[in-house]
What does this fold into?
Amino acid sequence: MKELIAEFRKIIYSSEEKFLKVSGEESNNKPQPEKWSSKQLLGHLVDSSINNIVRFINGQFREDFVFTGYDQDKWVTAQRYDEAEWEIIVSMWKNNNLQIANVVEFIPEDIFTRPHSNHNSNLISFVKVPRDKPFTLEYIFTDYIAHMKHHLNQIFRMNNLEEI
It folds into this structure.
């Protein structure tokens, strides 16, 4: 788990460094009119961090892993990321994820890897787990990182930056 946390923190800091090379104006560019801009994609990752930190905290104390989902399009619209300052979104994303790293780092190993058969990963995960397969906090964390890397690479491609 320590290696995974270290890798996660490395992604956070190296991504922040890349983001700060992107101007506020560039962060508004969309690859296509119906697609999200870099601001909106990173805002989506802020929303994901908000929802997932609740899972990492509550998941330590629950017998079931049936978590509330969220409508990502409505959240991005409601948060008005398209009107926010790029640097503020970058800061929120970085700080939320550093807090996730702090929370996950201190989850006891037996709780982090404890399987739960009652879950809704098939509805909330980036890479779905069938309902008949067990689900763990460790899986939620690795899935969270995979989801984050997917969108970070989208942002990096949109801004001609090196991918993860």
Observations:
- Helices lie at 2-19, 38-58, 72-79, 86-105, 109-112, 121-124, 137-158.
